[in-house]
């Protein structure tokens, strides 16, 4: 089994190292890890955030473990050379259109959240985020208005095929859980969202066992804090899913806990924490690697069908948390390596 490891920038290499140690400790037969450069690190070395050799490594692998990209000192580069283009390029080039971002409160650890424990207690939700379209990939640029003012623009659009394929992912995910799907949009204002809603309603006819509801994204942001336990599966577009998943992470406890899977039509997937390169704590050994370790579990489950091994990792993380192993993001004092050690001890 060949796994590509793209550590990236900032805390990316620190958290990825711990996830790799966990993968290695499982004794998986034929495990082969192949490293590749992405992000600002790749730009500095090769002049591009997503070099061809990295793409080749990705395509030759069965799954990709990704750290994070982003380097503020490179934010002045033309957009196509900025570090973030590595992750955007991989998602697009590899057809990784379905982003699964689960947010579940760890049992007995309701006090990790900044919400009141009785509000957070029931959180067990899954955000299904479309990852290949929306305002992220539309035409964009800078121009001048007739009055000579600078104007930035980004075209938001979805076609019906793009909405249909992510809607199916959402409905199937709901079928495997408690059969409730909430589609989040902004159909009261955006044509993109009206089409989204129309198509989701059409697809719903194929899933009579799933209860479909719709919610505007502003209300969804509010309900995620008011009554997060009421959500099961949320299906939404690229931009709304990005924002709501960071919010959901804090409902659970910390952005350092949330893993993700970005899936294609085939078995190739990319697995990464939902957080970024965290330049404010990079290089200090302070980052919580649990989100990346949990992403490695998702990799084993979704790309290699190794459910038992995935659960071993998830139980070890939950046990470490229950035993009081907490990073600074959770008000604790354990560093990156100490958290990795603690998970390894409990595998
Ligand atoms: N998929 C990705 O690679 C990805 C995702 C988000 C942001 N980014 C990039 O990362 C850079 C920083 O962005 P940002 O500051 O908005 O978001 P961020 O997620 O990097 O950090 C936000 C806050 O959360 C904290 N944090 C994040 N991960 C943590 C962890 N594992 N443990 C403890 N604390 C953690 C950070 O210290 C910071 O205070 C930017 O260049 C951005 O574009 C990349
Ligand atoms: C780094 C950025 C391009 C990325 C996104 O917006 O998708 C990140 O915020 C994420 O959540 O994975
Ligand atoms: Mg994000």
From TrEMBL:
<keyword id="KW-0479">Metal-binding</keyword>
<feature type="domain" description="Isopropylmalate dehydrogenase-like">
    <location>
        <begin position="2"/>
        <end position="343"/>
    </location>
</feature>
<feature type="site" description="Important for catalysis">
    <location>
        <position position="136"/>
    </location>
</feature>
<feature type="binding site">
    <location>
        <position position="91"/>
    </location>
    <ligand>
        <name>substrate</name>
    </ligand>
</feature>
<keyword id="KW-0520">NAD</keyword>
<dbReference type="InterPro" id="IPR004429">
    <property type="entry name" value="Isopropylmalate_DH"/>
</dbReference>
<keyword id="KW-0028">Amino-acid biosynthesis</keyword>
<feature type="binding site">
    <location>
        <position position="218"/>
    </location>
    <ligand>
        <name>Mg(2+)</name>
    </ligand>
</feature>
<feature type="site" description="Important for catalysis">
    <location>
        <position position="186"/>
    </location>
</feature>
<keyword id="KW-0100">Branched-chain amino acid biosynthesis</keyword>
<feature type="binding site">
    <location>
        <begin position="276"/>
        <end position="288"/>
    </location>
    <ligand>
        <name>NAD(+)</name>
    </ligand>
</feature>
<feature type="binding site">
    <location>
        <position position="218"/>
    </location>
    <ligand>
        <name>substrate</name>
    </ligand>
</feature>
<comment type="similarity">
    <text>Belongs to the isocitrate and isopropylmalate dehydrogenases family. LeuB type 1 subfamily.</text>
</comment>
<comment type="subunit">
    <text>Homodimer.</text>
</comment>
<keyword id="KW-0963">Cytoplasm</keyword>
<keyword id="KW-0464">Manganese</keyword>
<keyword id="KW-0460">Magnesium</keyword>
<feature type="binding site">
    <location>
        <position position="246"/>
    </location>
    <ligand>
        <name>Mg(2+)</name>
    </ligand>
</feature>
<comment type="pathway">
    <text>Amino-acid biosynthesis; L-leucine biosynthesis; L-leucine from 3-methyl-2-oxobutanoate: step 3/4.</text>
</comment>
<protein>
    <recommendedName>
        <fullName>3-isopropylmalate dehydrogenase</fullName>
        <ecNumber>1.1.1.85</ecNumber>
    </recommendedName>
</protein>
<keyword id="KW-0432">Leucine biosynthesis</keyword>
<dbReference type="InterPro" id="IPR019818">
    <property type="entry name" value="IsoCit/isopropylmalate_DH_CS"/>
</dbReference>
<dbReference type="Pfam" id="PF00180">
    <property type="entry name" value="Iso_dh"/>
</dbReference>
<comment type="function">
    <text>Catalyzes the oxidation of 3-carboxy-2-hydroxy-4-methylpentanoate (3-isopropylmalate) to 3-carboxy-4-methyl-2-oxopentanoate. The product decarboxylates to 4-methyl-2 oxopentanoate.</text>
</comment>
<dbReference type="InterPro" id="IPR024084">
    <property type="entry name" value="IsoPropMal-DH-like_dom"/>
</dbReference>
<feature type="binding site">
    <location>
        <position position="101"/>
    </location>
    <ligand>
        <name>substrate</name>
    </ligand>
</feature>
<feature type="binding site">
    <location>
        <position position="129"/>
    </location>
    <ligand>
        <name>substrate</name>
    </ligand>
</feature>
<dbReference type="GO" id="GO:0003862">
    <property type="term" value="F:3-isopropylmalate dehydrogenase activity"/>
</dbReference>
<feature type="binding site">
    <location>
        <position position="242"/>
    </location>
    <ligand>
        <name>Mg(2+)</name>
    </ligand>
</feature>
<keyword id="KW-0560">Oxidoreductase</keyword>
């Amino acid at each position: 089994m060949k796994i590509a490891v793209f550590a990236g920038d900032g805390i990316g290499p620190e958290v990825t190292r711990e996830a790799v140690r966990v993968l290695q400790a499982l004794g998986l037969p034929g495990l082969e890890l192949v490293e590749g450069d992405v992000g600002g690190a790749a730009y500095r070395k090769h002049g591009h955030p997503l070099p061809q050799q990295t793409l080749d490594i990705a395509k030759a692998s069965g799954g990709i473990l990704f750290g994070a990209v982003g380097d503020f000192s490179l934010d002045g580069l033309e957009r196509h050379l900025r570090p973030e283009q590595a992750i955007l390029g991989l998602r697009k080039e590899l057809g990784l259109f379905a982003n699964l971002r689960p947010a579940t409160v760890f049992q007995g650890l309701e006090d990790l959240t900044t919400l009141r424990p009785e509000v957070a207690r029931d959180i067990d939700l899954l955000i299904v985020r479309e990852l290949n379209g929306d305002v992220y990939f539309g035409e964009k640029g800078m121009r001048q208005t007739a009055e000579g003012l600078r104007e930035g623009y980004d075209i938001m659009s979805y076609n019906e095929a793009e909405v249909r394929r992510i809607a199916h992912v959402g409905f199937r995910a709901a079928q495997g859980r408690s059969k409730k799907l909430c589609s989040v949009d902004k159909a009261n204002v955006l044509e993109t969202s009206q089409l989204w809603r129309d198509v989701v309603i059409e697809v719903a006819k194929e899933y009579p066992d799933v209860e479909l509801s719709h919610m505007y994204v502003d209300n969804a942001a509010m309900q995620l804090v008011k009554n997060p336990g009421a959500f099961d599966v949320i299906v939404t577009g690229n931009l709304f899913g990005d924002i709501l998943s960071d919010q959901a992470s804090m409902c659970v406890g910390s952005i350092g806990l949330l893993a993700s899977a970005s899936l294609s039509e085939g078995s190739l997937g990319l697995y990464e924490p939902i957080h970024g390169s965290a330049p404010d704590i990079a290089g200090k050994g302070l980052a919580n690697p649990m989100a990346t370790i949990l992403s490695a579990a998702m990799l084993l489950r979704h790309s290699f069908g190794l459910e038992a091994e995935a659960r071993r990792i998830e139980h070890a993380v939950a046990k470490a948390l229950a035993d009081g192993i907490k990073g600074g993001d959770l008000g604790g004092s354990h560093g990156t390596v100490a958290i990795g050690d603690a998970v390894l001890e409990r595998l």
